[in-house]
Amino acid sequence: MKGRLTRALSGAAIVTLAMAAAPLLAEGPTDADLMNDAATPGDVLTYGMGPQAQRFSPLKAINASNVAKLVPAFAASLGGEKQRGQEAQPIVYDGTIYVTGSYSRVFAFDARTGEEKWQYDARLPEAIMPCCDVVNRGAAIYGDKIIFATLDAHMVALNRHTGKVIWNKQTADYQAGYSATAAPMVVKGKVIYGNSGGEFGITGAVEARDVNTGELVWRRPTIEGNMGTLNGKDNGITGKANASWTGDLWKTGGGATWLGGTYDPETNLLFFGTGNPAPWNSHLRPGDNLYTSSTLAIDPDTGVIKWHFQTTPHDGWDFDGVNEFIPFDATINGKPMKLGAKADRNGYFFVLDRTNGKFISASKFVMQTTWANGFNKNGRPNYNDANRPGAPGEAAKGSSVFASPSFLGGKNWMPMAYSQDTGLFYVPSNDWGMDIWNEPIAYKKGAAYLGAGFTIKPIAEDHIGALRAMDPRTGKIVWEYKNKAPLWGGVLSTAGNLVFTGTPEGYLKAFDARTGQELWKFQTGSGVVGSPVTWEQDGEQYVAVMSGWGGAVPLWGGEVAKSFKDINQGGSLWVFKLPR
Amino acid sequence: MISRRSLLGASAALALGLLPGMVAGPLGAAPLGKVRELGVLRVVVYKDNRPWSWEEGGRLTGLDVDLARAIAAKLGVRADIAELAADESVDDDLRHGVWKGGLLGFAPGDLMLHIPFDRTFAARNDQVAIIAPYYRESFGFVGAGGEVDLEAPPTGWRGHRLAAELDSIPDFYLIGSFGGILARDVTHYPSGAQAVAAVASGKADAVLASRAQIEEAVHGGAKLSLRKGPLPAFTSPGWDIGMAVKESSRTLGDAVEEIVAAMASSGEMKALFAPYGVEWTPALAG
Predict the structure, then answer these.
(1) Residue B64 has what DSSP assignment?
(2) CB pair distance less than 8 Å for B175 and A284
(3) How many DSSP H helices and E strands does chain B contain?
(4) What is the mean pLDDT of residues A243-271?
(5) ipTM of the assembly?
(6) What is the model's pTM?
(7) A30: which of A15, A389, A486, B206 lies 20 to 30 Å off by Cα?
(8) Which residues of B touch A125 (CB under 8 A)?
(9) For the sheet containing A447-458, what is the strand order?
(10) Who among B86, B103, B115 is closest to A134 (CB)?
(11) Given this chain, do its domains B2-137+239-276 and B139-226 carry the same CATH topology?
């Protein structure tokens, strides 16, 4: 009670201050600050610690020689009965840590004490049935605003001092199956984000809104044949109608952009991955089904697609192509190149020329890929045709196929990191497969239906999760750390020769970036499925991560569940530093 | 009516009497007793599932809605009818609608209608009891305006405007069979009722849809002709539709089964279907 009174008073104080000095308080991170985020270790302003999302910090006060001494500075609970999966990456600015929580909540904590400054709870309709838990992956910051997406497909801008709503726009209809869980990004004064939906019948799109008003600037559908818009006017269709789709299936072709994107200021390109095509049965949709399971390069000013690369043409295994495409520079065959890398659900690590989308290489980063045996020099998979799930309807029960990776992917949503020091990518991956078959006794909306049955299985005795260091120049795995339970959290790399990631078993761990040797771990009390960050404050380096088990993994049982059945739920922000 | 209700009450009490441990106080754990004490039966129906349950002019209507009200009335309680948006499978819908509820607070129902009555399906959904099969559903192929030779082999429909509900068995049959020869001719609609309506309004020539969807449209004035012969290589022989209660709600399930059985034998079920133009067809398992 007393605490509430204090908070109310401080809220009133802020309002008074705001009236007295409104222009001052409207200040905050600018477009230039966001673009420069990777080079300013005193804050964390973007999802990915820089628009390119390399998740690399130049800080080295905490390093391989002293990380073993890392201790908690404080923890802060997200409280209530609303625990479940905490997949957010913190934003740190001006003495405040901003995190999003499960059930579309935002918290502002004092970055020195962990005391809560304010909390925002989105009012969600009870009829939402999110496909893959009630997670949120983070917020964007711009000027006086904190911007995040809600499970009922709204984009909300809050005043970062008070948590009060500045604007709140519906981006899609949750009743039609749309949702939103990814962190938005701000590029050139526009909030840019993708869409998501668990229901069949949706099509993917990327949208940009004016960061100050929330009004739509452009919209770019991801499926060929659909019309894009710019400033309320038609802006050309995506691709070429019916070039890789039959009939009217392009109207409902899938390709959701549910993980958001990255941005490269050098080439002025946004990179968004797209989801798998619909319907699930690939035999009903001959063709490549563009631009599903692809990476799209989009002009942030107009929403026009500049290039595309499809990682799983004609997907038949539910291999989303949503994974982050991270720009980096390297010398390939003696030639310095502007590149980008993506570790795909399909088990391959792709390196592309980011100026034009040209294929450079695809290397296996998981134990096993049954669906294809590598990629040819044109960037097309060498399919294993016997391993494509069969067409239903031809037999009462189609034959069961063992496919690896499983549909949860060699890598799922959790972001990898790139170290500018080691030149390696650190990929949080999982080794698992699935039995998949046509299900003759399936029902949907109370009616008979041709469904697919599946069981996810481990493929190794000792692990499912594996953090792997990949050399993008050679495609070789330099080291790997194996984890019993599936890895589901993001990765951070630092100039202190360190790589951090969390485990479902509850640990935040630090590894030697060059050797993979485990140097430190701390038990946070629940599974870690968030993305760690680091920054410098008052002359000391801090590391923060969210703890709280959940996400899509616990929703699928079977043999895989044995590795995490005893993990309890939670919901906390943990902050670490070295003792003085 | 009164006599039947008191009779049912007596039989339910008898059922409760066999399990005295379950009767615990005025708001006891016995589900039937609890429903009676509260005076409300929460029934979950599908959203946008014409002719079974859909909204028209802001009002919830349909066969399942009427059936839910009839069952509640016979239990002597009020019906609280909740619409549930269908998820990827009925297995998911049972989790949301019957035994667990939604993650965002959607309260599970005491009873959910329109659940397939199928042994294999029931076996893998052991958190619920699937009861009271009340209708036999199947698919039919209908055309309007004589554009399509309905009795011809499906390959003969090439070039005609065909309609189907997106992602349904009719959809998969039309776009996937016969080497996909009809794939370009199929227009997809969000529901079977809308696919049938497209034919009725001249936007399409023929549709493959459920019998209830077709009959309700015909009742509404659509001039549709039905293919009489079976569809070659069509794998769905039809299915029974029943209801679900929580596995621990057998007392309620037993009472509902008795009500539904009585409605079937008395002709009340047939009468309930008649205003929608749907001919009541008893479930094979019924």
Answers:
(1) H
(2) yes
(3) 10, 12
(4) 96
(5) 0.87
(6) 0.91
(7) A15
(8) 104
(9) A401-403, A432-444, A447-458
(10) B103
(11) yes
- How far, in Å, are A39, A299, B9 from residue B17 at the CA level? 75, 72, 12
Chain B nearest CA to A136, separation (Å): 14
- Residues of A annotated as catalytic (active site), given as ranges: 318
- Please determine, looking at this structure, whether the domain spanning B139-226 carries the CATH number 3.30.420.10: no
Say yes or no to pLDDT of A256 above 60.
Answer: yes
Q: Give the tokens for residue B19.
A: 């399990």
Tell me the pLDDT band of A198, cut-offs 50, 70 and 90.
low
Can you tell me the distance from the alpha carbon of A379 to that of A348, in angstroms, rounded to the nearest whole number?
11
Gap between the Cα atoms of A71 and A433, Å rounded: 38
Q: Which residues lie closer than 8 Å to B129 by C-beta, 6 or more apart? A: B244, B245, B246, B247, B249, B250, B253
Reference A374, options A365, A389, A363, A385; nearest CA is A363
pLDDT in tens, A18-42: 444 444 446 899 999 999 999 999 9
CB atoms within 10 A of CB A231: 10
Question: Which one-letter DSSP state was computed for residue B228?
Answer: -
Residue A449 to residue B104, Cβ atoms within 8 A: no
Residues of chain B neighbouring A133 (CB-CB closer than 8 A): 103
Both tokens assigned to A329: 């520079």
Say if the Cβ atoms of A252 and B85 lie within 8 Å: no
Integer Cα distance of A395 and A390 in angstroms: 9
Of B137, B176, B239, the CB nearest to A283: B176
Delimit the domains of chain B by residue range: 2-137+239-276, 139-226
DSSP annotation string for A142-198:
ETTEEEEE-TTSEEEEEETTT--EEEEEE-S-GGGTEE--SPPEEETTEEEEE-EES
Which residue is it, tokens 């009497």? B17
Q: B128 and A482 in contact (C-beta within 8 Å)?
A: no
**CB–CB contact B172 A281 (8 Å):** yes
- Report the gap between the CA of B16 and the closest CA in chain A (Å): 31
Between B106, B188, B235, which is nearest A393 by CB? B235
Q: Residue A487 contacts by C-beta under 8 Å, 6 or more apart in sequence? A: A414, A428, A429, A430, A464, A465, A466, A467, A501, A503, A504
Q: How many residues does chain B have?
A: 286
**pLDDT band per the 50, 70, 90 thresholds, residue A10:** very low
Q: Name every chain B residue with its beta carbon within 8 A of the beta carbon of A201.
A: 166-167, 190
- Chain B residues within an 8 Å CB radius of A281: 172, 176
At the top level of CATH, which class does the domain B2-137+239-276 belong to?
A: alpha beta
Query: Is the distance from CB of A220 to CB of A203 less than 8 angstroms?
Result: no
Point out which residues pair with A100 in neighbouring strands.
A106
Q: Would residue A285 be called left, alpha or beta, if left means φ above 0 and alpha means ψ between -120 and 50 degrees?
A: beta
Q: What is the mean pLDDT of residues A75-93?
A: 91
| pLDDT higher than 70, residue A462 | yes
The token pair at A273 is: 């991955």
CA dist., res. A252 & res. A420, Å (int): 41
Judge contact between A426 and A499, C-beta under 8 A: yes
- State the nearest Cα–Cα gap between A279 and chain B, in angstroms: 7
Which residues are A186's β-sheet partners? A191
Q: At what angle do helices B31-38 and B2-18 cross, to 10 degrees?
A: 140
Given a cut of 70, the residues of chain B with pLDDT beneath it are 1-30
